[in-house]
């Protein structure tokens, strides 16, 4: 009996070991497959499906469907995203010529929350030199032309009727030189210096950076051209007709309607309740002094 009991115990032990081993192998296999599937697909187990390619393309790609875009006296037909509320412009061409954007970006105005959108809108078709640079600090620009945004070469006035407002592929620049051989006002020395300055920035101490920055901006004026300088009915800074604007458009830009809008815009202030730079006394709504 003792021998048979011993064999029976050994059989049961082997059976238990086999069952436990099978369960462990099965559990390990399942866990491995689960981890591989979950970690390999960030959307797995989260109820998020990978976008269908056809649906994705229909959302991000421009279609042949056109919608009207009204810009003052002009009306354009432009592509529309299906199901998209906002109109989408045809293109936004980067300025590959003006070196200022290497540091300041394509939309350089960011200091004033009230004005930055308005100013950056003008940056689409007006070069930095028009408003911020003088060859001689006390002498304002008097002549202007257009330069191609891809190469910086002087070009003829764009046919504005064929483009959405501001998207001309060219920018207004101040001119120098003779009438027969005009040249765009450029900051060649500053551009060469700025390129080297950016390369060696990490090697410079704070004082050297300040000196270098002053050199790059040495021909920039403290008070740039203001909105009211261009939009006024008496003596507009920019010669609109000479730059290719139609008589109707030039008259509108200098009209009382626009002038009044500019005047209100330049004196616009955010409501006090939106300002958070000064503490308020609890319960009074008044600023603490």
Concise summary:
The protein is an alpha+beta fold. It has helices spanning 2-40, 53-60, 101-104, 116-122, 128-132, 188-199, 206-216, 227-230, 247-253, 256-266; strands spanning 66-71, 74-79, 144-148, 154-155, 170-177, 182-184.
What does this molecule look like?
With 289 residues, the chain is an alpha+beta fold. Among the domains are: 43 residues, no CATH class; 133 residues, no CATH class. Helix content is 37%, strand content 10%. The protein contains 10 helices and 6 strands, in the order ααββαααββββααααα. The strands form 2 sheets. The chain has a 4-stranded antiparallel β-sheet with strand order 4-3-5-6. α6 packs antiparallel against α7. The C terminus is likely disordered.
Going by helix content, strand content and strand pairing, the class is alpha+beta
Distance, first to last CA: 103 Å
| Helical percentage | 25-40%
Count of discrete alpha- or pi-helical segments spanning 4 or more residues: 10
Strand content: 5-15%
> Low-confidence parts, pLDDT < 50 over ≥5 residues?
70-74, 280-289
Q: Got a strand count?
A: 6
Strand order within the widest beta sheet = 4-3-5-6
Biggest sheet architecture: 4 strands, antiparallel
Q: What is the helix/strand order?
A: HHEEHHHEEEEHHHHH
Shape descriptor: elongated
How much is the average pLDDT? 76
Q: Work out the radius of gyration.
A: 33 Å
């Amino acid at each position: 009996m003792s021998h048979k009991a011993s064999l029976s115990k050994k059989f049961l032990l082997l059976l238990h070991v086999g069952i436990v081993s099978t369960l462990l192998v099965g559990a390990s296999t399942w866990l491995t497959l689960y981890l591989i599937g979950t970690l390999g697909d960030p959307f797995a187990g989260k109820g998020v499906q990978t976008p269908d390619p056809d649906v994705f393309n229909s959302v991000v790609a421009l279609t042949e469907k056109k919608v009207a875009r009204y810009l003052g006296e002009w009306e354009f037909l432009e592509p529309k995203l299906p199901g998209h509320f906002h109109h989408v412009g045809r293109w936004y061409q980067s300025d590959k010529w003006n070196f200022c954007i290497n540091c300041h970006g394509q939309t350089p105005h960011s200091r004033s929350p009230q004005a930055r959108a308005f100013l950056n809108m003008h940056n689409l078709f007006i070069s930095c030199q028009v408003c911020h640079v003088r060859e001689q600090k006390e002498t304002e620009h008097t002549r202007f032309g257009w330069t191609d945004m891809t190469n910086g070469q002087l070009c003829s006035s764009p046919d504005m009727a064929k483009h959405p407002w501001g998207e001309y592929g060219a920018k207004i620049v101040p001119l120098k030189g003779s009438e027969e051989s005009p040249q765009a006002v450029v900051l060649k020395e500053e551009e060469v210096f700025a390129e080297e300055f950016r390369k060696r920035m990490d090697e410079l101490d704070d004082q050297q950076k300040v000196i270098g920055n002053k050199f790059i901006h040495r021909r920039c004026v403290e008070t740039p051209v203001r909105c009211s300088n261009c939009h006024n009915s008496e003596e507009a800074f920019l010669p609109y007709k000479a730059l290719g604007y139609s008589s109707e458009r030039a008259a509108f830009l200098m009209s009382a309607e626009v002038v009044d809008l500019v005047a209100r815009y330049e004196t616009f202030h955010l409501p006090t309740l939106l300002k958070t730079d000064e503490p308020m006394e609890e319960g009074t709504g008044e600023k603490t002094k």
